[in-house]
């Protein structure tokens, strides 16, 4: 462990909790339900109606009144406003989703019906095949609580409950500042250069975490340019890649000090990704500093940046997911190790040859296994998926 780490490293789990807890949630906005996929609910949503809205057929066939056989007296299709009433010994042909006439004892599916002219008969029905008004939802039922992710099924449920718009958290705005004289944005790097891998990686990660599409600003290893890139942004979060360590060209700490930022996390006791920073500017906006080594940057983003965005979005805690780690991993040592893993059948299998500067293993993996200092191979490990 370097001098830098021993001086101020925060435990990995503490850093995540701190990032999430310190964030003050963004405001809420009302948007059409159709635009709300992937957003985070800002307020509880209750059903405005009962579902089903009326007693309805669950099968195509005959709605029958009293014991059979029944005389077929009509037909009711889905969308019919007033299905009428059935006298005992009568039936109507009915479609799934159509309202059943009052007096309906059951719906007999076509497959179970014997039809002879205008008479229909069947064995006594084992099920009514009628869905009763309000059996799924009642007006006022809580459909989702604030902080829920608007998943595909939840959006469908909210529509069933009559929602046209939903209150969601404003997407946090992010500026992504990619530092490095050697870092190029397009094409093949020349001598001494390297292609920017963190730009696309962080863009994907933060958008997936619910932020607005970040603005990417590339700056050289220059103190004033970095300062301007941070100070000149009013984004909720400025993410800086590179410049987080102690090299001559690493200006982030000096710039943050000049800007009067408070360092809530300055180095994390994890491998890779320890030289990471979470700072709060005097105006309440955030700076997340990620190491330039790409896999280390990814781990740091999972450590401070994603929890910070979760906090800004006031997202409900993500479910903790643990799996046994199948395969050779060495003991974690004194810091938390983040190991790329593929998720198999009930186990997480480490992907070989992960290094802080390499993305191959992470790209072949589904996420990382979190091996905390007290982890032993007989315990399941927490998994963070990309
Ligand atoms: N004396 C010490 N040196 C270093 C320490 C330390 O504790 N003491 N920590 C090492 C660790 S661990 C890491 S990680 C790096 C972090 O360095 P920085 O965040 O300051 O990043 P840079 O120095 O700018 O770059 C490191 C490395 O990554 C490449 N890089 C940078 N940006 C990108 C990008 N956008 N896409 C792809 N690759 C990128 C860069 O070319 C360097 O190779 O510090 C160690 N040193
Ligand atoms: O954070 Mo550095 O991880 O060891 O490359």
From TrEMBL:
Q: Which reaction does it catalyse?
A: adenylyl-molybdopterin + molybdate = Mo-molybdopterin + AMP + H(+)
EC numbers, comma separated = 2.10.1.1
**Record's GO cellular component, any one?**
cytosol
- Gene Ontology terms describing biological process: Mo-molybdopterin cofactor biosynthetic process
UniProt xrefs under InterPro entries: MoaB/Mog-like_dom_sf, MoaB/Mog_dom, MoeA-like, MoeA_C_domain_IV_sf, MoeA_linker/N, MoeA_linker/N_sf
Keywords, A to Z, come to:
Magnesium, Metal-binding, Molybdenum, Molybdenum cofactor biosynthesis, Transferase
GO MF annotation: an example: molybdopterin molybdotransferase activity
Pathway(s) served: Cofactor biosynthesis; molybdopterin biosynthesis
Q: Where is the MoaB/Mog domain?
A: 175-311
Which cofactor names does the annotation list? Mg(2+)
Q: What family does the entry list?
A: Belongs to the MoeA family.
| Cross-referenced PANTHER family | GEPHYRIN, MOLYBDOPTERIN BIOSYNTHESIS PROTEIN
Entry function:
Catalyzes the insertion of molybdate into adenylated molybdopterin with the concomitant release of AMP.
* Name of the molecule in the record: Molybdopterin molybdenumtransferase
- Its source organism is Cryptosporangium phraense
The organism's taxonomy opens as:
Bacteria, Bacillati, Actinomycetota, Actinomycetes, Cryptosporangiales
């Amino acid at each position: 462990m370097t001098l830098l780490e021993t001086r101020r490293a925060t435990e990995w789990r503490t850093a995540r909790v701190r990032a999430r807890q310190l964030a003050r949630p963004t405001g809420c906005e009302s948007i059409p339900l159709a635009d709300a996929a992937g957003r985070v609910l800002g307020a509880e949503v209750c059903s405005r109606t009962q579902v089903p809205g009326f007693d309805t057929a669950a099968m195509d066939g005959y709605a029958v009144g009293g014991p059979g056989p029944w005389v077929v007296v009509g037909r009711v299709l889905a969308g019919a406003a007033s299905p009428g009433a059935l006298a005992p010994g009568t039936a109507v042909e009915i479609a799934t989703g159509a309202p059943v006439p009052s007096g309906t004892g059951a719906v007999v599916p076509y497959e179970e019906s014997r039809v002879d002219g205008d008479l229909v008969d069947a064995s006594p029905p084992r099920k009514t095949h009628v869905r009763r008004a309000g059996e799924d939802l009642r007006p006022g039922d809580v459909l989702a609580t604030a902080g829920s992710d608007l998943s595909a099924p939840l959006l469908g449920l909210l529509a069933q409950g009559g929602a046209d718009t939903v209150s969601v958290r404003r997407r946090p705005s992010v500026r992504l500042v990619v530092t490095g004289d050697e870092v190029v944005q397009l094409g093949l790097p020349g001598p001494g250069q390297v292609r920017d891998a963190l730009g696309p990686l962080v863009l994907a990660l933060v958008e997936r975490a619910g932020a607005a599409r970040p603005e990417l600003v590339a700056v050289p290893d220059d103190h004033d340019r970095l300062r301007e890139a941070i100070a000149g942004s009013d984004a909720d979060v400025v993410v800086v890649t590179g410049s987080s360590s102690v090299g001559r060209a690493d200006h982030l700490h000096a710039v943050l000090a000049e800007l009067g930022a408070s360092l809530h996390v300055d180095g994390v006791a994890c491998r890779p990704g320890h030289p990471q920073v979470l700072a709060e500017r005097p105006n309440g906006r955030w700076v997340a500093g990620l190491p330039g080594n790409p896999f280390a940057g990814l781990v740091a983003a999972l450590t401070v940046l994603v929890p910070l965005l979760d906090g800004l979005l006031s997202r409900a805690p993500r479910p903790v997911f643990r799996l046994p780690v199948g395969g050779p991993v060495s003991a974690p040592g004194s810091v938390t190790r983040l190991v790329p893993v593929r998720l198999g059948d009930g186990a997480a299998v480490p992907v070989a040859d992960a290094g802080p500067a390499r993305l191959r293993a992470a790209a072949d993996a589904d996420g990382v296994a979190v091996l905390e200092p007290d982890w032993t191979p007989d315990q399941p490990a927490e998994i963070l998926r990309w």
